[in-house]
Amino acid sequence: MQFILGKKLKMTQIFEEDGTRVPVTLIDAGPCVVTQKKTKDNDGYEAIQIGYKEIKKENKIKKTMKGKHFKYLSEFKGNLEDYKEGDTIDVLQFKKGDKVKVTGQSKGKGFQGVVKRYNFSGQDRTHGIKKDHRRTGSIGSAYPQRVIKGRKMPGHTGAETVTISNLTIEEIDKENNILAVKGGVPGAKGTLLRIEK
Fold this sequence. Notes:
With 197 residues, the chain is mainly β. It is 5% helix and 43% strand. The termini are close together.
């Protein structure tokens, strides 16, 4: 299993040999370092912990700060035999045409009404409706005499963990550690992304 951490740079487009335009997202992926191998004996589960964006410290890193000199740490479940502590993970493990899934935090949109949050149609634009065009409308019934759990209501929108699967790697810039993934990925520019094959 191949995996890496990266940051969303921007969206752009590339052209294939036949002139077809392909929208892509550029991701600054890695290099990452394996900081820890978690095993069933010690931790109760098996996983690989990797660090991304090393923080340069003037003082020597103490033993108790193992892995904390990276800005981002994340765990992936994979084959422990393929990795050992200190290994570097970069874009060379991927190739053009690979299918990957990308996980990130979606853009936050703050507190929103039901028209924007759930695509409600709103109230009729007719006589008798005044200043209520984007209101929720009825939220209950005669029985039970309460609002049912899970009712779609206004509230905080976005800023959720979103995963998009089956994205195709269109190009790989090995010198600059950049992946060009077909289509859009979650989040704004600079969002931390998990990329898994």
